[in-house]
Amino acid sequence: xxxxxxxxxxxxxxxxxxxxxxxxxxxxxxxxxxxxxxxxxxxxxxxxxxxxxxxxxxxxxxxxxxxxxxxxxxxxxxxxxxxxxxxxxxxxxxxxxxxxxxxxxxxxxxxxxxxxxxxxxxxxxxxxxxxxxxxxxxxxxxxxxxxxxxxxxxxxxxxxxxxxxxxxxxxxxxxxxxxxxxxxxxxxxxxxxxxxxx
Length: 198
What we know:
By secondary structure, the protein is mostly helical. Helices cover about 70% and strands about 0% of the residues. The chain has helices spanning about 5-10, 15-30, 35-45, 55-80, 90-105, 105-115, 125-145, 150-170, 180-195. It starts with a helix and ends with a helix.
């Protein structure tokens, strides 16, 4: 039993194993129950081994946030590119639906990405990936409503999607709300408002 952590540690992929173990833990446990010790246990290494790559659980979480935003951007891009209608508005609607699916499928990581756990450290990776997500949305909103309204339009649309996602994840949305219909209705209202001259 004592050799298992040593073997895992020397296989050369400790950092990746720790990140994968952390994502696994976040998918199964409440955020407050995920610790470096728990992550190390799942990775099959000693409780001290994670500190070779991450001084604190906050640093590890920062890297998870970066990975999360990268997957988030990829998921929204894929949804937009698969839309039968490639108009700017249709692409945004497809991205809105993908947003909710991502949040539901990655509850723990999504929570880290948007501040549901204190102590997450901002790493260069996490900041770069989050900025890429914002750029993605602003680019798509610009195509739909023009550059003059793009910044606040992007903020409006993201706030609306995030608010609905959090209501659904916290089981706080009205019981008769259909997520896909809700996100489509909200997105259409935001886009129509931004496109209006009034």
